[in-house]
Amino acid sequence: MTLWRFLDTGYNDAYWNMALDEAILMLRTEKRVPETLRVYTWKPSAVSIGYFQSLEQEVDLDACKSLGVDVVRRITGGGAVYHECGGELTYSLVVSEDTLRSKRFFEDIQGSYRVICEAVVEGLKKIGISAEFKPINDIVVNGKKISGNAQTRRRGVILQHGTILLRTDIPTMFKVLKVSKEKISDKAIKAVEDRVTTIYREVSSSITLEDIKEALRRGFSEYFDTAIEPSSPTQAELELASEYRKRFASWSWIAKR
Amino acid sequence: MLLTSEYKVKGGKMIKVKLDVEENVIRRALIAGDFFLYPEEAIEQIEESLSGVNVSSDIEQVLANAVMRAGAQLLGVSVGDLASAVKLALQNEFR
Fold first, then answer.
1. Looking at the domain A4-254, which fold is it?
2. ∠ CA(B33), CA(A19), CA(B73), 5° rounding?
3. What is the pLDDT of residues A92-127, one digit of tens each?
4. CB-CB under 8 Å, A51 with B34
5. Nearest CA in chain A to B6
6. Which residue has the higher pLDDT, A93 or A193?
7. Given CB atoms, is B46 within the 8 Å cutoff of chain A?
8. The model's pTM
9. Which of A51, A79, A109 sits opposite B75 (nearest CB)?
10. Of A9, A56, A110, B16, which alpha carbon lies 20 to 30 A from A217's?
11. Which class does domain B2-94 fall in?
12. How far apart are the C-alpha atoms of A49 and A75, rounded to whole Å?
């Protein structure tokens, strides 16, 4: 049994958040850092789009600008996400494929989503939420989405990151994401509210971010049967993340597609 | 001529295609969407495989070959779905 790390990197901007995930991934491929569970939040609020998405098709850049919302392209696929400052917790897991190989369901990429999402589900259980994995990349409570997840791999190492909703701000989400204008009706907002749920709705809004982070740490620790000890990013990670941050913040990357 | 399509895949993912077509030949293709593909960079090879392809070609075969050559794995969409999205964009002109 090897020791895993738990990093709580707090509030940072979108570019740093994405850069640090990639830095941990790359240094893990060189075995310079251990398996890592990271939790983080976004300040300012931001939209992240999937690697394959077209910026102009998904994001209303004028609305983002006027609302002070950053825009970043992820290295992972999947859809556009509005990360509201204080409205969600994001986790990332950087783990070797070899470490997960013994887990049931791990046989293919879809299976690896299941395995890692099951650990999130275990964490949610700790705060009294009964959730389940829903293929392809969601976690739901009574059929309503509470978490979206995305992953990529480099040389035998998986990065999976995902959001866990604390509350929703659907009107702002509709402003910054390009949804057809007729969707911005009260009815459409209600429709999204019916398909999505949040931690605050499922349990009490008196639950703190710290409670949820700790629940995730314990959930992952039990699910993967390993100690996960609080730690800090290494100097090498911080330096590499600073370098990657420039790319994530560059227009050529953001508007790549 | 710029042709576009939005193709909703069973299971929920969306494929958004943009094609630049001249004289019945695809010059450039963009295959965007909220699907997953590993390795991610393979999308460029897959798009490139459509360049120079006649609109009456077997699009699915072209894409299947490109996915195989890139050693890529799709999640959330199939090669058939990608082909359907491309063909939908082509129909938007040739209907």
1. BirA Bifunctional Protein; domain 2 (3.30.930)
2. 40
3. 999 999 999 888 888 899 999 999 999 999 999 999
4. no
5. A57
6. A93
7. no
8. 0.94
9. A109
10. A110
11. alpha beta
12. 9
